[in-house]
Structure formats: structure tokens, C-alpha cells
Design goal:
The chain has helices at about 1-15, 40-45, 55-60, 60-70, 85-95, 110, 140-150, 175-185, 205-215, 240-250; strands at about 20, 95-100, 120, 125-130, 135-140, 165, 190-195, 215-220, 235. It is an alpha/beta fold. Bound molecules: nicotinamide-adenine-dinucleotide (NAD).
């Protein structure tokens, strides 16, 4: 509504340190479906969630084969960053983006020109691989080449351990270094803005809570309601490819304080 928009624009204009949390909804316009939206991967086929569970991945070679097949066909290989991604690059260019925490694994923020130093990939990236035994890292491209050449469940070339995309599955811990940086950015901002996330995946959603408790104003941009709407100073429901360029291009209020 109009009052929400006015409030959101005022907060964006006044804030000098903005921390952002994005989710799958930021990339649906770029052709990558989300999980829990009306057209989400899990909404259409709840069994797909099994591919994201570390225990079934470790226990079941068929789950691993399916996971590699789905990586090979992932829409992120073809996707291009859109207006929603570019809006954050512009915000960063204005010098006011403290950090951007993302649950996405598609690297579209970086490809939209956002400084990789500002991006905290909470759930990793699908363009890397990691050995679950010795932690050796590699590229998804190299692993998928081995799949295409006839090895449907490629193992670590160094130790023979189980190889996986460098993403965080259910049952796996987030990188503690990334979490700490995220917590610092959440507590060290005037405005915490969430975009395209259902705010139901923890610990990612907890950053909004942390920011609010540290005194930041909260703006929620999401098509559907989230558990944090009640705490938000403004909630914007429209399509992110329209909402974000409009919201983040508002002129900055000159800084009069010393
Ligand atoms: P989610 O699917 O739980 O929520 C996405 C939210 O975005 C939904 O509430 C939906 O209503 C909203 N949305 C979708 N398109 C929108 C649009 N154009 N405008 C406004 N709102 C829109 O996603 P989540 O909260 O990010 O959690 C899902 C998990 O899945 C994360 O762990 C993430 O790592 C992973 N994931 C990543 C990608 C990706 O990298 N692009 C894609 C799917 C899932």
C-alpha cells in the first residue's frame, strides 16, 4: 500500500548501512524456480526435497546420481541476472550496502556486478564441489564432465570420498566463518532488507531477528506473507523485478550529522 511504500522509501533514503538478505524469489524472474512459491520445485513435487537432505545423499547412490543429473540441468547455467539483482549492485555503488547475505546458490548477484566481497553465500554455490571426506574443492563443470563421460556418481579424485556440490543441504552446518560475518553485518546496520525469501529456513531467517533486536528497521519484500511481516516497518508485496529498482533508486537524504 501507499503508506508502506512511503515508509520504505524514507528508510532507504535515510540509511547509510543497509544489510540485505535475499532468497530464491530474487531469481525467479531470471528463470530459476523457487522452492516454496506457487510454482516452486517442492510445491510441485515434495519428493524433490530428498535431494537436499545430507543423510539420503550419503546413504543412497541413486540420490547422488539424481543430484548430479539435476545439477547438469539446473536453469542457473542459462540464467542471466535481472533488474532485481542489478538493483543491489546500484545500491552498492552508492556506498551504502553493508553486506548482502544470500540463500541462493546461483551466483547471479556476483554476475550482476556486485563486489564478491559484499556477498555472503549462506548456502554455498552450485558452481563448486567439495569432498565430504577430505574437503578437497573443485568445479562443478569438472564434476559434470566426468558424469557426462560415464561416471554417474563421481568420487573425490584425491581420496575417493563422496563428492557433493558446494552447497549446504538439510542436515549440514553452514560455514561458521560466513555465519559470523553475517551476524556482524546484521547487527551493524540501520536497515535490514529481505527480498524474495519465505524466511522459513533457519538459521538464515534468524539474521532478520538478530538485526531487529540490534535496533535496525526491517523491510520485507516478498510476494507471500512471511513470519517476520509483523516486525517489519514496511512490507512490499509486488514483483521484485519492479519493486527493487523502484525502491533502491530513491535519492539519498544528505548526511547532516558529523
Ligand atoms: P523460498 O522458495 O522458501 O521462498 C521464496 C519466496 O519468494 C516465496 O515466498 C515467494 O512467494 C517469493 N517470490 C518468488 N518470486 C518472487 C518475485 N518475482 N517477486 C516477489 N516475491 C517472489 O526460498 P528461500 O527462502 O530462498 O529458501 C529456499 C532454499 O532453497 C534456500 O535454502 C536456497 O538456498 C534454496 N534455493 C536457491 C535457489 C537459487 O539459488 N536461485 C533457487 C531455489 C532454492
Amino acid at each position: 500500500d501507499a503508506a508502506g511504500w512511503r515508509r520504505a522509501c524514507e528508510l532507504v533514503a535515510a540509511a547509510r548501512r543497509i544489510t540485505v538478505l535475499t532468497g530464491a524469489g530474487i531469481s525467479t524472474g531470471a528463470g530459476i524456480p523457487d522452492f516454496r512459491g506457487p510454482n516452486g520445485v517442492w510445491t510441485r513435487d515434495p519428493r524433490a526435497q530428498r535431494l537436499s537432505d545430507i543423510d539420503s545423499y550419503l546413504a543412497d547412490p541413486e540420490v547422488r546420481r539424481a543430484a548430479w543429473r539435476s545439477r547438469a540441468q539446473h536453469p542457473a547455467w542459462e540464467a542471466e541476472p535481472g533488474p532485481a539483482h542489478r538493483a543491489f549492485t546500484e545500491l552498492a555503488n552508492s556506498g551504502r550496502l553493508r553486506a548482502l547475505l544470500t540463500q541462493n546458490i546461483d551466483e547471479l548477484h556476483q554476475r550482476a556486478g556486485l563486489d564478491p566481497e559484499l556477498v555472503l553465500e549462506l548456502h554455498g554455490s552450485m558452481f563448486g564441489t567439495v569432498c565430504l571426506e577430505c574437503a578437497e574443492t573443485g568445479t562443478m563443470r569438472a564434476a559434470l564432465r566426468r558424469v557426462a563421460e560415464g561416471d554417474p556418481d563421481p568420487s573425490c579424485e584425491r581420496c575417493g570420498g563422496i563428492l557433493k556440490s558446494a552447497t549446504v543441504s538439510f542436515g549440514q552446518a553452514l560455514d561458521p566463518e560466513v555465519v559470523r560475518s553475517g551476524q556482524r553485518a546484521a547487527m551493524d546496520c540501520e536497515l535490514f532488507l529481505t527480498a524474495g525469501t519465505s524466511l522459513t529456513v533457519h538459521p538464515a531467517a534468524g539474521f532478520a531477528e538478530l538485526a531487529a533486536r540490534a535496533g535496525a528497521d526491517l523491510i520485507v519484500c516478498n510476494a507471500e506473507p512471511t513470519p517476520y511481516d509483523d516486525q517489519a516497518a514496511a512490507v512490499l508485496r509486488g514483483n521484485l523485478d519492479e519493486v527493487l529498482p523502484r525502491l533502491l533508486s530513491v535519492p539519498t537524504v544528505p548526511n547532516s550529522s558529523p
